[in-house]
Amino acid sequence: MLRRAKERELSEKLKTMVWTGLKLALALGMILWMIKSGKLDLAALKVFLDHPWALFACFAYWLFFGLLFGSTRWFLLLRGLGITLPYFQALRLSLIGLFFNSAMPGAVGGDVVKAIYISKSAHHGQKGATLVSIVLDRVVGLYGLFSFAAFISIVAWSGLSQSPVLSHMSHIVLFLFGAITLAFAHVLFHPKRFDLVDRVLSISLLRRFRGLYHSLLRYREAKSCLFLAWLISIGIQGASILLYWKMAELLTEQNIGFVKFCTAAPLAILATAIPLAPGGLGVGHVAFERILGFVGVGGGANIFNVVFLTSMAFNFSGVVPYLLESKVKISNKSQEKV
In angstroms, rounded to a whole number, what is the distance separating the alpha carbons of residues 11 and 15? Predict the structure, then answer.
């Protein structure tokens, strides 16, 4: 019996390795195709030699918005669930997560590693809540992205509506913003007696997800934590779009309208979360090339590439806390109102 278990474990590891290899091969194939077709020019990286401040801007964004603000957002979401994790520990785990985002397929690889670290030390009944915090951190990040883009679309609607492409993209952004808003409104404000989601999750096939949903409902008593996390996300995503916009202007040597760029960039950034290769490798290049091309911005693959490579390089600093990381210490204060 032990032998069969080992064989199954070996088979699963082999399948994982093969599947990961195929995804990486596909991503690298996309990169090679773009280089060969002239859509991706690695010489564009010399922008950092011509404009050293651009490299500093990439580092500043990574440090303050990617790491510090990102860690603060997750810290607040943990607090909302009644889980007390020292901020410095949340910072270390976030840095480790960024490292694995660069080392594992997909932009969510680091989230998986963070979940493993924190769930191993969670008390009984906390494991579901820790998982919710990590998934919600990703969702709130996307909500911040579409909140920023939706605000720009509404303010500049009279100009955007005159272009069929910009108008169509704005409608997509507003739809995604509205859908996530309705989901959060349900969680935070619905009458408990008419919770249709809870009734659906009571079905035997879906019952395993009911505990996760109940963990999410804890934010009804900690709305401030969720609200602050959302505001932080808007700042992070706004800075991200601003960085891509400035890189686009440097690489294309053109004046690109910020509002126009804001209608397309969120959809391109969303594509980088597809779990195909580390940090959105390949998928991000193609998405930026195609989606920015719809609004008349050329060289989208190069724009993504300069930010992508610098972020990957900075993320690898997370190997240091990963090698030094000890057991995560968390405590439960689920009865405490935040």
Answer: 6
Residue 19, CB-side half-sphere exposure with 13 Å CA sphere: 11
Query: Token match 């997750």: residue?
Result: 74
Over range 171-188, report the average pLDDT: 95
Is 169 within 8 Å of 152 (Cβ atoms)?
Answer: no
Q: Which two tokens stand for residue 111?
A: 């989230």
Considering only CA atoms, give the Rg of the chain: 21
Question: Which amino acid is present at 240?
Answer: S
Look at residue 312 and tell me whether its pLDDT is greater than 90: no
Helix axes 87-103, 109-120, angle to 10 degrees: 140
Instruction: Name, of 106-110, 172-176, 317-321, the range with top average pLDDT.
Output: 172-176
Structure tokens that stand for 188 in this block = 């935070």
CB 164 within 8 A of CB 141: no
Residue 102 or 275, more confident? 102
**Stated pTM of the model:** 0.84
Nearest one of 275, 302, 272 to 287, comparing CA atoms:
272
